[in-house]
Amino acid sequence: MPTSARFRPITVERLVTELADRIAGIAEHRIRTRVLIDGADLATDAAALADALVDPLRVRGHDVLRVSAHDFLRPASLRFERGRRDPDVRYEDWLDVAGLRREVLDPLEVSGTGHVLPALWDAARDRAFRLPRTSVPDGGVAVLDGELLLGQGLPAELTVHLWLSPGALRRRLPEDARWALPAYTRYDTEVRPSEQADVVVRVDDPRRPAVRES
Hints:
This is Uridine kinase. Residues 195-214 are annotated as: Disordered. This protein has one domain (7-212): P-loop containing nucleotide triphosphate hydrolases (Rossmann fold, 3-Layer(aba) Sandwich). The protein has 8 helices and 11 strands. It has helices at residues 12-27, 46-59, 76-79, 87-92, 97-105, 166-172, 181-191, 193-196, and strands spanning 7-9, 32-39, 64-68, 115-116, 121-122, 127-128, 134-135, 140-146, 158-163, 199-202, 210-212. β10 (199-202) and β11 form a beta hairpin. The two termini are 13 Å apart.
């Protein structure tokens, strides 16, 4: 994060309202809209922010599909091939990027079918989900949460990155999850998500977020 970056304090409720307004404004001019909410797992609550956008977007007249990148992880045999705590594998190989594009994001292109598979792999049971495809109608919005999403070539109309200072990231991660810290360091160094994202929200204190000013 550039040292010159300026952040505007905001309430959680106001953050949701501002994001919903921005997404709805994009969706007014799109057949379908894809939104990525990116944040370190267990340290930021990207899923909660994505969930909080659903009702406000529906009130604004848009059907919403909620998708989690956690339902597009690769099988355990691939994720844990080099052990359960390899940060490089976490960074490079945990997410089934091709599957997420194929089943969700590409069908929502302007020329896509609009028919998506909302979940592919049940990581807890390590087996495929048995879900039917669902249709995202014209004007619909897909809201996807996950970690390490940017820099993967995932197409989206709006990207939101939940940023933590290095010290806050270490504090917020449970001790038994800190083995993943090198993966997040690589992400910040190689991808620079705070420079790529359309919206950056500082969440050192999740009760008192702050939005980076343009």
